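In this supplementary section we document a worked example of the pipeline. Step one takes a protein sequence of length 339 as its only input; no multiple sequence alignment statistics are reported here. Step two produces a three-dimensional model, which step three serialises into structure tokens for compact storage. The input and output of this example are shown verbatim.
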Amino acid sequence: MSQPNAGAENQAEAVAAAERASRWPRSTRPMGFGAILAMAESSAFGDETPRFADILEMTRVANDVGFEAVWIIDHFLFRAQPDDQFPMPGTPDERGVWECFTTMAGLAGATERIQIGSLVACTGFRNPGLVAKMTETIDDISGGRTILGLGAGWHKPEYDAFGYPFDHRVTRFEEAIRIIAPLLRDGRADVAGKFFQAADAVNRPRGPRPAGVPILVGSSGERMLRIIARHADAWNTVWHGSPEAIVAQMAAVDAACAEVGRDPATLVRTAGGNIAMPGYTGRRPDPIEGSDAQIAETIARFRELGIQHFVAGLDPCTPRSLERFGRIIELVDASAPIS
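The serialised model returned by step three reads:
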């Protein structure tokens, strides 16, 4: 009896691996590029608040110079706390942020080719069924260009300010993704959790992708890595100035996949790094610095370590700096080994 069961399990894993591969956007490069856009007051955009027109212009420039995706943060506010990284240099103790999903929907309707993702949407801020419905709708608006990045959240002041519970964040996250993932992939979920429930919930109508919107999760905790291995299509590391900083994390996510019986090769690896562009404001910490060639060489090292998509946090983050970064993309592409 054991052999037939093993065969069925292997076949199911092969089908799941094929579905994961079909969900993640294909790239003609060994490593694709994304840009995380300025969304907050006193951000890397400068002292002026980026308006939607500015965010849309940055998205269009990013598309034109070779970025394959733009990424939108999900916060309500940044408020300075003792022992916290905020405020950043030259910023006030309290800063507001535009809302994530409505911004994504606006960009989806005003663009045609570039992928639009959340990096990352906090599962503590919204009912998971609502997250799935909003994501499916945005994917239809975009014609199949949406990536749902999810995380458990971390900045306690915004939870406190808006009355969201900060306790049991990983458990809440796990229950949320157990509802969101099947709603997006199968159109139906039935989960009886302690914090979130779905009683034969249905996600209809469906958007343009039968396999569902790809799900990316950003985290590095041991328990979160196991959740990622079970449910995510892609994984995002935290922000690093040094490519070598991801080596241990890459090994940890491989181990998490092995623990849950998943082929590690089926999990897309993404990484984020801040980039000091001309006029660096200091509002994106621990940046990759140097000439265009030096920055390109550092970013190429992420590719050599197995990263398939690199998210650039430019400082400053403006249409002009995004346009200039196009030269760095060209240098990274030129350094890729010929297959």
